[in-house]
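thread: overnight batch results

M.L. [08:02]
morning all. the overnight job finished for the chain we discussed friday. pasting input first so we're all looking at the same thing
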Amino acid sequence: MLEGPLRALAVAASVIVVLSFALFAIDETRAASQRSSDAVSGRSPARVPDPSPAQERTRERAHGTVRELVDDANDVLVSPFAAASPDGGDKWARRGVPATLAVLVYGLGLSFLARFSRGRA
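M.L. [08:03]
and the structure it wrote out:
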């Protein structure tokens, strides 16, 4: 009874987290000099798992509507794991560690719960 909704939730959450990380990776590999000049001028979009309100507004201006919806959903999904990201340092680790934990918990954890619920029904 709960297997279908749990499996759908696991897939949807994992797709959102992976898609958001892929979009982040595309951004990072494109136009490094532009990002440097934007950071100096204060227009750099947020690249942290749990952005502040000011970082969120900057990101909204830099991205389109669909991208912002994906990033907002990702923010909600990875916020429980944001504390696991290393302070300072590499932005790939700051985004990658919470994303990896989210995929493990949502993808594997909810899939396991879906299989477990089928056996108990």
